[in-house]
Design goal:
The protein is of the alpha/beta class. It contains 20 helices and 17 strands. The chain has an eight-stranded parallel β-barrel with strand order 8-9-10-13-14-15-16-17, surrounded by four helices. Strands 1-3-5-4-7 form a five-stranded mixed barrel. The chain has a two-stranded antiparallel ribbon with strand order 11-12. The chain binds 2-acetamido-2-deoxy-beta-D-glucopyranose (7 copies). One of its GO terms (cellular component) is membrane.
Length: 587
């Protein structure tokens, strides 16, 4: 042992460290101090006695009010709780672990005040959970079934052990999210994901108390959604018969979302990003199937910002005939009150490639007027179905092609930001719109895997280059879990302005992702956003960012997600978990 003489000092320092953690843990639980770990961290979690654990009775049961979705969730959690047998990587340092059956917990009793409240934006997700130190019944109380589901998740994370199950006891939790909209966007057009991949993703979202699956279903590359009124769009525009979503698949996904407290928010991107529509209806799509950026033209004259060209033609009446059928089908398939209509990245060169548009422009028309015609003909139709329309920020903020605010009624429109970090969030809320934050500088999960273009000379470098530093992709570098965790989506906003921010979404665009890498790209980085939007990224008492203790907790949570069947990537060597604090930097 070459460094034998150093060891006693390390042990001394380490025992002091442990002692400190034990003292700190008496007041508030779940801070990473005693190994009791709930992710995302609850707003308030405190011990009513000294930190302790009791046996979870082998006949443990959950008593739930009868409700189609909550009863199903309760059964699911009961099964998870009884079979998971999580073994914490750091043994919880509790004052009292009682394995006597006299103090075993027999029942989790759920009370819900309002069983009829549907799952919708802003629904009350508050819950309280009391686990007694010396009685056999724990209480979970919530205003809605959706809040009760959040509480079930918390309870499941307070149980561990093998062969006996232990449950943290003498514990009180009050919990409620800071932001109502905690979402994940997945693009199923550029590469296809099976229904099971989507279900697994929704399930993992519910583990992380997230509540919106933003499904970017269609784009220029493929149209995988089979629509009853417009079956040709998928028949001809999908990647193939085995790469489609049938109405039954959608129903399954929406219902699965409901049993997990996750809304499924569909996006049909248009008028840009619609090349795949041309397989069925070439007459309504401009510049379809062209080489995206011809050698002889400069960037301003490109037809698309990436390979895969095509925009719907706002001047062709048939465009609206098809689109109205699509909207009809979407509102029938998705009960969700938000309808994402896209409207990002109108590329002038694509519209200018069309002869009817050329005459419109040469008669004094503008590209922005074309977009106004499109929005003015579709938004009212979507609103007619009592939907709130979500658009990407471009529709208002794009430098070249945008619409006047009068086309975007504020009570019916939400804008999702993705450029210029906090600056555009401020522009959106200052213009009077509610915002969903997906800033690509912080929340894009696909960045940093290189660019996907072939024949790309930027990689032919024998000297280090800047593109190597940013990972070669437009939004590089890779967004680490810390980048995501530390971002404040209301940065630079006044209290009034901040109220207009509904929440955030991390986004996985799928140029370089498919089912094989889905879990690794999403988890645990998406968990980082989930905690920040649920309970914040700061210590409640000091207001200081809590990324140091979050590291240990996220590590533990990652292992727990893996044992629940999620292919989440590691964030540190195992050694760091076994030696808490030792892998930190103190500089
Ligand atoms: C542990 O809990 C049991 C049962 O409540 C109690 O009898 C015992 O005194 C406790 N031990 C400590 C060290 O607090
Ligand atoms: C649970 O609720 C019951 C009935 O309201 C109450 O008697 C009991 O004390 C509660 N237990 C805890 C641990 O809060
Ligand atoms: C949510 O429900 C709880 C009771 O469970 C209540 O105290 C709270 O005021 C409700 N929150 C809102 C925003 O209505
Ligand atoms: C690129 O094309 C635009 C529009 O035709 C033109 O204004 C601009 O000067 C061109 N830029 C270069 C570098 O050729
Ligand atoms: C319209 O949507 C709102 C909010 O989702 C809902 O409260 C209301 O009942 C709906 N109205 C109709 C007529 O469906
Ligand atoms: C945001 O605005 C500030 C102040 O105008 C500017 O310095 C900064 O570069 C902008 N950031 C981005 C990402 O555009
Ligand atoms: C590769 O790019 C060069 C310009 O850098 C171009 O001249 C050539 O035609 C391209 N080759 C292919 C196969 O696309």
């Amino acid at each position: 042992m070459p460094h034998g003489s150093v060891i006693p000092a390390i042990i001394l320092i380490f025992s002091l460290f442990i002692l400190q953690l034990c003292i700190a843990s008496v007041a508030s639980a779940g801070g990473g101090g005693n190994g009791i770990n709930v992710w995302p961290k609850p707003r308030i979690m405190s011990w009513t006695t000294q930190p302790r654990a009791n046996l979870l009775s082998p006949s443990f049961a959950i008593s739930s009010p009868k409700h189609f979705y909550l009863s199903s969730a309760a059964n699911r959690y009961l099964k998870l709780i009884k079979t998971e047998h999580h073994q914490p990587l750091v043994t919880p340092s509790l004052i009292n672990i009682t394995t006597s059956s006299s103090s075993a917990l027999h029942t989790l009793f759920i009370t819900v005040e309002s069983l009829l409240t549907p799952l919708q934006h802003g629904v009350n997700e508050t819950y309280t959970l009391s686990i007694p130190a010396d009685a056999s019944i724990a209480n979970l109380t919530a205003h809605t079934v959706w809040g009760a589901m959040r509480g079930l998740e918390t309870f499941s994370q307070l149980v561990w052990g093998k062969p006996n199950l232990l449950v943290a006891s003498g514990l009180y939790v009050w919990d409620s999210p800071l932001f109502a909209h905690r979402g994940l966007m997945v693009d199923t057009s550029r590469n296809y994901y099976g229904v099971d991949d989507i279900l697994r993703t929704i399930k993992t979202m519910s583990f992380n108390k997230m509540n919106v699956f933003h499904w970017h279903i269609t784009d220029s590359h493929s149209f995988p959604l089979v629509l009853p009124s417009e079956p040709d769009l998928a028949a001809k525009g999908s990647y193939g018969h085995d790469m489609q979503y049938s109405p039954n698949d959608v129903k399954k996904i929406v219902e699965f979302g409901l049993t997990h407290g996750v809304r499924v928010l569909p996006e049909i991107d248009s008028p840009g990003h619609t090349g795949s529509w041309a397989e069925a209806y070439p007459e309504i799509v401009t510049c379809a199937n062209k080489f995206w950026w011809p050698a002889e033209s400069n960037w301003t004259n490109r037809l698309a910002s990436e390979p895969g060209t095509g925009h719907l033609n706002p001047l062709n009446p048939k465009t609206y005939k098809i689109l109205k059928n699509v909207i009809n089908d979407i509102v029938n398939l998705f009960p969700e009150a938000f309808y994402h209509a896209g409207a990002d990245e109108i590329i002038p060169g694509c519209w200018k490639a069309d002869s009817t548009i050329q005459s419109f422009l040469s008669n004094g028309g503008t590209l922005s007027q074309l977009l106004e015609k499109f929005v003015g003909s579709t938004l009212p139709y979507i609103v007619f179905f009592n939907r709130t329309v979500v658009y990407w920020e471009d529709v208002l903020l794009d430098d070249n092609v945008n619409v006047r605010p009068s086309f975007l009624p504020k009570e019916h429109t939400i804008l999702q930001t993705w450029n210029n970090g906090a600056n555009n969030t401020k522009r959106i809320v200052d213009a009077g719109y509610r915002a969903i934050v997906s800033s690509s500088e912080f929340y894009y999960l696909d960045c940093g895997h290189g660019d996907f273009l072939g024949n790309d000379s930027q990689y032919d470098q024998l000297q280090p280059s800047s593109s190597a530093n940013n990972g070669g992709s437009w939004c590089g570098p890779f967004k680490t879990w810390q980048t995501i965790y530390d971002y404040d989506i209301t940065y630079g906003l006044s209290e009034e302005e901040a109220k207009m921010v509904l929440g955030g979404e991390v986004a996985l665009w799928s140029e370089q992702a498919d089912p094989k890498v889905l879990d690794v790209r999403l988890w645990p980085r998406t968990s980082a956003m989930a905690e920040t939007l649920w309970s914040g990224n700061r210590d409640e008492e000091t207001g200081i960012k809590r990324y140091a203790q979050a590291t240990d907790r996220l590590n533990e949570w990652r292992y727990r997600m893996v044992s629940r069947g999620v292919g989440a990537e590691p964030i540190q060597p195992l050694w760091c978990l076994r030696n808490p604090g030792m892998c930190n930097t103190a500089h």
